[in-house]
Amino acid sequence: MSKNPPQSLNEQGISLLLTILIMALVLGVALGISTILFQETRMTRDVGNSVIAFYAAETGMEQVLVSKENPSSPCIVASPCSLGNEAVYYLLITPSGPNCSSQNYCIKSFGIFKETRRGIEVNY
Question: Rounded CA gap, 28 and 21, in Å?
Fold first, then answer.
């Protein structure tokens, strides 16, 4: 009498092992793809926030240029100017000097939306 198990039991053990290995491989690929998609979704959202922050900074710049004010001393608008979409902008206006390559004034406008910040500088 043979003490070895029947051939069919060995084959069932191998197929179970192969099934587990294949499922682990599929799970690894699925987790990798989901991680990539999550990062791309977050990056796409951040691009949208960046555009809104940039346009908030541009709005601040337009406010200064349209008003045609020529401050004689450095001017900092310390309080944020709020826009209707939760975006804000800050302004910094300085006369010409070592940090300003212009003959008249340097205007810096910083737009903030959620956690994204963008800035614009104009020399005139």
Answer: 11
